[in-house]
Design goal:
By secondary structure, the chain is α/β, with parallel strands linked by helices. About 25% of the residues lie in helices and about 25% in strands. It folds into three domains: about 55 residues, OB fold (Dihydrolipoamide Acetyltransferase, E2P) (Beta Barrel), CATH 2.40.50; about 140 residues, P-loop containing nucleotide triphosphate hydrolases (Rossmann fold), CATH 3.40.50; about 50 residues, Probable gtpase engc, domain 3 (Ribonucleotide Reductase Protein R1, domain 1, Orthogonal Bundle). The protein binds guanosine-5'-triphosphate, magnesium ion (MG) and zinc ion.
């Protein structure tokens, strides 16, 4: 029977097949093949014995969060609690872009910052839009729903950013959410597993938050290509890394405020592995 994995907790996979949920375990052969089923996988199951028999070819897959067959990654980015980190945002954009998944930014917690800060956010939002990335505020539920129509979506972001809260709002659901720990001054994870929710014509996966992300597995070349605004810029040297080179067009654009300074600075941080 054909189905789709919509939830995973340790070795148990919930498979949606013909409108019913089957809690399955993978058959032993996957371990030999070093293959782990992922939420998002299209699979063939034995519904009587609750086995996953086959995993169909994946369109794409991510290791963080662990999910497959995704069209759009929403980067849920809070402005406060946890504080806005443009470095983490740019890392996530690069991570998704390298993995051929469209990055969409959704800002949360606008209500916790002042007007001056919001003005800065508007400029940042405009910049990302100018390079072709969709940016929304988490209050724009209808607009976002329209954009996500018929898509497979995964939501990523820092612990406490408001991922589960956002999905609840989108689908009128009741996923557990939590205030970030004040005592420690850092997030404690509320969501602990990956699970896909079907909201009208959208499949959206909630995922556990993280506090750091590294791109150590990717080359500087891949990171450069993931900064989409550098792509069509013609530097003197074709293989220019836009770093130490003189006569670099990217740096000229930066000096003319055509490239957001934080974007460039974060790019350098990423390629210098700092
Ligand atoms: N003020 C304000 N609080 C928000 C907003 N969005 C979410 N929150 C609050 O932020 C806290 C964390 O929200 P969650 O939805 O649990 O965060 P999460 O990203 O799912 O966190 P993890 O599951 O740990 O990764 C909760 O107390 C929410 O009520 C917002 O736009 N404004
Ligand atoms: Mg959550
Ligand atoms: Zn250059």
């Amino acid at each position: 029977m054909n189905g789709k994995i919509i939830k995973n907790i340790s070795n148990l996979y919930s498979v949606l097949a013909k409108g019913k949920i089957y809690d399955c375990v993978p058959r032993g052969k996957f371990r030999n093949q070093n293959l782990t089923p992922l939420v998002g996988d299209e699979v063939i199951i034995d519904p009587d014995n609750k086995y996953i028999l086959e995993i169909k070819e994946r369109k794409n897959e991510l290791n963080r969060p662990m999910i497959s067959n995704v069209d759009i990654g929403i980067i849920l980015t809070s402005l406060k609690k946890p504080d806005l980190s443009l470095l983490l945002l740019d890392k996530q954009i690069s991570f998704l872009t390298i993995n051929h998944i469209e990055a969409v930014i959704v800002f949360s917690k606008l209500d916790l910052v002042d007007e001056v800060f919001l003005e800065k956010i508007k400029i940042i939002k405009k910049y990302y839009e100018s390079i072709g990335i969709k940016v929304f505020y988490n209050s724009e539920v209808d607009l976002i729903k329209k954009y996500l129509k018929n898509k497979e979506v995964v939501i990523t972001g820092q612990t406490g950013a408001g991922k589960s809260t956002f999905i609840n709002k989108l689908g009128n659901l009741n996923i557990k959410t939590n205030e970030i720990s004040k005592a420690l001054g850092r997030g404690k994870h509320t969501t602990r597993h990956v699970e896909i929710y079907n909201i009208e014509d959208i499949n959206i996966a909630d995922t556990p938050g993280f506090s750091a992300l590294d791109l150590d597995n990717y080359s500087n070349e891949e990171i450069k290509d993931s900064f989409i605004e550098f792509k069509n810029v013609e530097c003197k040297f074709k293989n220019c890394m836009h770093n130490k080179e003189k006569e670099c067009e990217v740096k000229r654009l930066l000096d003319n405020n055509k490239i957001l300074k934080s974007r460039y600075d974060n790019y350098i941080k990423l390629i210098e592995r700092g």
